[in-house]
Automatic annotation (TrEMBL):
It is an enzyme of class 2 (transferase). HAMAP family: PlsX. GO terms for cellular component: cytoplasm. GO terms for biological process: fatty acid biosynthetic process; phospholipid biosynthetic process. Pathway: Lipid metabolism; phospholipid metabolism. Keywords: Acyltransferase, Cytoplasm, Lipid biosynthesis, Lipid metabolism, Phospholipid biosynthesis, Phospholipid metabolism, Transferase. This is Phosphate acyltransferase. It comes from Sphingopyxis witflariensis. Its EC number is 2.3.1.274. PANTHER family: FATTY ACID/PHOSPHOLIPID SYNTHESIS PROTEIN PLSX, PHOSPHATE ACYLTRANSFERASE.
Length: 344
């Protein structure tokens, strides 16, 4: 089913501000001409930013509010003022059906709390999960979830994450049968916590799902491309994600330092520039910007707070793709098949 993508954008959230959020939306619309937008925030500032993007202005409505969720706001504080903030009103547009999805670069905890309260979880889902695509050495990116929405997870949570992650991989990457693995401290069946081992047993026993459960995967194999979906609790997943991001920055900074250390190094940099540019592109987090909350009755994406216009555009484009391919319906259907298979 093809859906017309209209996206609500929290124009005030994150480190980037109105100007970059509008520039990213405009960049996305140049690639995807059918996109329409609801920009939520300070109307004066939004209109000023739109002056530089006539193509975006023609496809945009504005919802004015002075209220903003700050990075210091606790989820409980954000919930109390949800109906008066740009983040809360963007999510509410999805709830009302005025937008097919919402994008925010703001406070992750607040965004999760607001989205869960407003949109509710799907039938068969105990907790939503935060999922993102990360680059690998293989032919496809890898879906990792949960990345911080749930610090403690039982076996049922992990199996639900696996089903949702596989549906996301089929939608976002076009894979017919995604390879799914559980993050663990070893690949042997006896390794790991009871929750991880029980989840593995449940996934091995599941029948008829459009995915292949491959068992356990260790942390040093996350970026190899051996699997398409990696499942873990939010505590482990957030640490893994931050470690990957930190390693990417370490490698780029180390190369920069090495190539500027001497005249010979600078000459070597000029010779190897095509290869280093390819590496920089592969490690640039803006090329994989956009984490989606799976398990909600609606599409909500979290953009990195420091993303540039290209990063925001990639997040918006991913949101549009998930709306068009009806990710909510696909996840709901897979969960129903999983429950029916268990019952059989």
């Amino acid at each position: 089913m093809s859906l017309t993508p209209r996206i609500a954008i929290d124009a005030m959230g994150g480190d980037v501000g109105v100007r970059v959020m509008c520039a990213g939306a405009a960049m996305a619309r140049h690639k995807h001409d059918g996109l329409r937008f609801l920009l939520v925030g300070d109307e004066v500032r939004i209109k000023a930013a739109l002056e530089n993007h006539p193509n975006l202005r023609a496809a945009t409505d504005i919802i004015h509010t002075d209220g903003v969720v700050t990075g210091e706001d606790k989820p409980s504080q954000a919930l109390r003022k949800a109906k008066s903030t740009s983040m809360g009103l963007a999510i509410d547009a999805v709830k009302r059906g005025d937008a097919g999805g919402a994008v925010s670069a703001g406070n992750t905890g607040a965004l999760m709390a607001m989205a869960k309260v407003a949109l509710r979880t799907m039938p068969g889902i105990d907790r939503p999960a935060l999922a993102a695509l990360l680059p690998t050495l293989g032919n496809n990116d890898v879906v990792m979830l949960d990345l911080g929405a749930n610090t403690d997870c039982d076996a049922n949570n992990l199996t639900q994450f696996a089903v949702m992650g596989a549906a996301y991989a089929r939608t976002a990457m076009g894979l017919e049968r995604p390879r799914v693995a559980l993050l663990n401290i070893g690949t042997e069946e006896l390794k790991g916590t009871d929750e991880i081992r029980d989840a593995a047993a449940m996934l091995r026993a599941a029948k008829g799902l459009p995915m292949d459960f491959t068992g356990f995967i260790e942390g040093d194999k996350l970026s190899r491309g051996d699997v398409d979906v990696i499942v873990h609790d939010g505590f482990s997943g957030n640490i893994a994600l931050k470690t990957i991001e930190g390693t990417a920055r370490f490698v780029t900074d180390l190369l920069r330092r090495a190539f500027t250390s001497s005249t010979r190094s600078k000459i070597g940099f000029l010779i190897s520039r095509p290869a280093t540019e390819l590496l920089r592109h592969h490690l640039d987090p803006n090329n994989h910007n956009g984490a989606v909350f799976l398990g909600l009755n609606g599409v909500v994406l979290k953009s990195h707070g420091s993303a540039d216009a290209k990063g925001v555009a990639n997040c918006v484009h991913l949101c549009a793709e998930l709306i068009e391919k009806d990710i909510t319906r696909q996840v709901t259907q897979d969960l129903a098949n999983f429950r029916n298979g268990d019952a059989a």
